[in-house]
Design a protein that fits this description.
With 274 residues, the protein is an alpha/beta fold. It has 2 domains: 2-45; 52-273, 3-Layer(aba) Sandwich (Rossmann fold), CATH 3.40.50. 38% of the residues lie in helices and 24% in strands. The chain has helices at residues 2-31, 34-47, 61-69, 88-96, 109-119, 172-175, 195-200, 203-207, 220-224, 229-238, and strands spanning 78-82, 101-105, 125-128, 131-132, 137-143, 151-152, 160-170, 186-189, 213-218, 241-247, 250-254, 267-273. A hairpin with a 7-residue loop joins β5 (137-143) and β6 (151-152).
């Protein structure tokens, strides 16, 4: 009985110290300049993967790909690079997985030429000068400059109306039979807020279980297209995928949706087939 009383006293003391420390910490944060607090918060979030997705080499994307592909010997893997831009992601991936079969999609004509110059001579890389989306047709691509690192099907604050280009769009459901592959081991989607459109145009392939892992981005351009992380939870839940946050050196399972996860600094997630 005395031992239980002693343990109870220690527990109450710990809780009192914790509450005191918490109140002190809150007061200290309240006294700090707002800009300094935001810098600290941003640094902490980036260390966990939130807002760290803009830099391919440091975002954890290649680490995630290597982990998800789970290579054994000379096993063949097929990767889709949707929104390939100038080919940075595919090139880094090939440095890690040199035998990967990559299909890279980039609709902007001048950016496509840079992609072709970078990866076009690789025997295991196929490049396509059209976008993937939810229609088979065409649309206008808005760009920030003629050789765009950032371009979107939606006019953004950084894009310019006079720098537009008509591009071809196709659904992955239409394209898949022409790829001559049985399974897609990883599809990486980075299309400046239109990730959900790509998924909607790939529902038949996803429903058939042909894509094992799907990486997607949530960022500031998702605000313009009214795309939320909750919408991805709903979509992938219907097809029996589990969601993970891509951290710099690990994958963190997101077992259920929480509004706290709605961070619109560039962040990468991956959906894995159960």
């Amino acid at each position: 009985m005395a031992r239980e009383d002693s343990r109870s006293i220690r527990n109450r003391m710990r809780m009192s110290i914790f509450r005191w420390a918490n109140r002190l910490l809150v007061k200290m944060w309240a006294l700090m300049p707002f800009r300094l607090v935001m810098v600290i918060v941003r640094t902490l979030l980036e260390s966990q993967g939130f807002g760290a997705g803009a830099r391919v080499g440091k975002s954890g994307e290649i680490y995630a790909a290597r982990s998800l592909l789970n290579l054994k010997g000379d096993s063949k893997v097929v990767v889709l690079d949707i929104g390939a831009n100038r080919g940075e992601y595919s090139e880094l991936l090939l440095n890690t997985v040199p035998k990967a079969e990559i299909h890279a999609f980039e609709p902007a004509a001048k950016t496509f030429k840079l992609l072709d110059g970078r990866l076009g001579s690789r025997a295991n890389v196929s490049i396509y000068n059209f976008a993937l989306g939810n229609i088979d047709g065409s649309a206008h691509l808005y760009k920030e400059n003629p050789i765009a690192r950032i371009a979107s099907l939606t006019p953004l604050d950084i894009t310019q109306d006079h720098l537009t280009e008509e591009i071809a769009i196709r659904r992955l459901d239409s394209v898949f039979p022409t790829l001559n592959v049985e399974q897609i081991h990883l599809a990486k989607i980075d299309v400046e807020g239109h990730e959900m459109d790509v998924l909607m145009g790939a529902e038949e392939v996803i429903r058939s279980g042909k894509i094992k892992n799907i990486q997607f981005e949530l960022g500031e351009f998702s605000i313009d297209t009214r795309t939320t992380l909750k919408s991805f939870f709903t979509f992938f839940g219907d097809y029996q995928y589990e969601l993970f946050l891509i951290r710099p050196r690990s994958l963190y399972p997101l077992k259920q949706y929480k509004p706290l996860y709605e961070q619109y600094s560039t962040t990468n997630f991956v959906a894995c087939k159960k």
